[in-house]
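Researcher: I'm comparing several assemblies side by side, and this is the next one on my list. It has 229 residues spread over two chains. Same procedure as the others: predict the full complex and return the structure.
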Amino acid sequence: ILNVEQSPQSLHVQEGDSTNFTCSFPSSNFYALHWYRWETAKSPEALFVMTLNGDEKKKGRISATLNTKEGYSYLYIKGSQPEDSATYLCASFVYGGSQGNLIFGKGTKLSVKP
Amino acid sequence: DSGVTQTPKHLITATGQRVTLRCSPRSGDLSVYWYQQSLDQGLQFLIQYYNGEERAKGNILERFSAQQFPDLHSELNLSSLELGDSALYFCASSVAPSGVLETQYFGPGTRLLVL
């Protein structure tokens, strides 16, 4: 069974703090890693799709790195704002036979206090 | 707004009953995915359809079935409902079939409560 693990489970920071969290995935047969942001009472929204070892993606104050050899990705938020409060999900794309699908972690819930 | 619509938003039913959840993908998207989010669980992939055909299957129970219609909307049928089926059910859509690099656009979800 393929497990995608995220840590920490939850995080409370003050406005202006920078923060980061981890997504771990099996490194064998890696295809792609997806990051999603899920605000309460809304739908998950895509942040990044990453495929190459050493890849780094950035969107505003949020960036992500990927290490496919050791099976982890970091998501960084610089200068957290209250509107960054959300659950951040990562998902690894896996193939089983001829079909594939995303396996999601349980997420890191970020709360940013003003 | 992702452009993916799901109905109903909330559903309360009893054990043993059958319900149908409906999803309309974004305009132009041919793939539809169904996910289940139970308490303390990550999003669990159930099934994917592409242009009317089943494309990939996850840990979907035999009591559950889905289909995608010619107009590309999809329905997820849950039967012989049990308390443990209470969850948030998401539909997502994307353009292409493979899903590897495809961004999936999620609907608002249907919250099912089985009493």
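Model: For your comparison table: The CA atoms of residues 3 and 113 of chain A lie 31 Å apart.
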